[in-house]
Amino acid sequence: MTTTSRPQRQVAPTGPERLERLGREPHRRYNPLRDEWVLVSAERTRRPWQGRRERPAGGDPVAYDPTCYLCPGNRRASGEVNPDYDATFVFTNDFAALRPDSDPLTLEDGLLRAEVEPGTCRVICFARRHDLTLAAMAAPDVRRVVDLWAGQTAELGERFQWIQVFENRGEMMGASNPHPHGQIWAGAALPNDAVREDRSQRSYLAERDRSMLLDYVEQESGGPRVVVENDDWLAVVPFWASWPYEVLLVPRTATGRLPDLDDRRRDTLAEILIAVLGAYDRLFDLSFPYSMGWHQAPFRNGDERHWQLHAHFFPPLLEATVRKFMVGYELLAETQRDLTPEEAARRLRTALG
Ligand code: H2U
Ligand code: ZN
């Protein structure tokens, strides 16, 4: 069935007054990508906090660290020596969580099920200099990282179904090293989050003959949750965000995977990445920790028109020294957030360069 109108708009108008009224009450918002709800209780940020306070990582970073296992020319834990690379460098993770040569093996015994998962893990250095971050790099250098993400995706997609490109930034997110780097894990199976997004995007397309995320881009453009937008990309604190300053980055036109991005959209992606990550760093005037990663169409023999490429940014901080803990209710019932997505987006906009 082909429809051009959006039924959810008629059923539940999200007018500014309605949203403001909702914002004063504990309320739940629906995440259509994950097909789940999130509890929003904005008043909770006023509660007293006597728990853990985070300290920004200290020490002046240096351009070259002789003890860093990612700097050019240095020895890694495996004993291998990194080449004297110029811009970017990729290697197979010396402590890979997935191995390509795993023997096929399954177990089915009542409720007990298991299967071997073949795959591979790579580490990608974004820059030669130890003290850089994506936010601090020049646009042409970030563009090189985009090209690397795209090239790796295309190459690994010939052998594996799901290519997970990601970056853990900062000690708080478990990054083992401040050298600008990310990872790629490629596997034979669709991981849980991919299955959820695959299912919801597929049924949205089946029901409306439209792409869920392209509809979302259209609905959010110019609105109160936009952090920054350009001709090709939209960065928004999603209406259903779980993390305080979560951001969703989506291209404006139908795109399945990173290698499908043309020259121009790779350049504008580099620009918007620098803008978003710069706003993060300026928000609390510290190197903002986050996990970010790309969700892109799986590589399998099938119709992937329902898939729209996008990146998720999940930063843990609620305030400069207070992190959001996903514990108790979040682990046992559902995610809860303390600050409205509209307010988070407003604060991020004021931190844009
Ligand atoms: P993280 O900072 O996101 O943990 O990524 C760094 C990766 O680098 C980590 O997965 C790998 C770790 O296994 N690594 C090597 O492959 N070789 C080394 O010499 C040290 C770390
Ligand atoms: Zn280094």
Identify the notable features of this structure and list them briefly.
single chain, 353 residues, alpha+beta, HIT family, subunit A, 2 domains, 16 strands, binds 5,6-dihydrouridine-5'-monophosphate, binds zinc ion
Strand content: 15-25%
Shape: globular
* Number of distinct helices: 8
Characterize the largest beta sheet: strand count, sense, and whether it forms a barrel: 9 strands, antiparallel
Order of helices and strands: HHEEEEEEHEEHHEEEHEEEEHEH
Oligomer kind: single chain
Structural class: alpha+beta
Low-confidence stretches: none
CATH fold node name of the largest domain: HIT family, subunit A
Count of discrete structural domains: 2
Side by side, the strands of the main sheet go: 3-6-8-7-12-13-11-10-9
CATH class of the largest domain: Alpha Beta
Report the radius of gyration as a whole number of Å.
21 Å
| Helical coverage, percent range | 25-40%
N/C terminus separation? 44 Å
- Number of DSSP E strands: 16
List of distinct ligands in this structure = 5,6-dihydrouridine-5'-monophosphate, zinc ion
CATH superfamily of the largest domain: HIT-like
Secondary-structure arrangement, i.e. CATH architecture of the largest domain: 2-Layer Sandwich
What is the residue-mean pLDDT, rounded to a whole number? Answer: 92
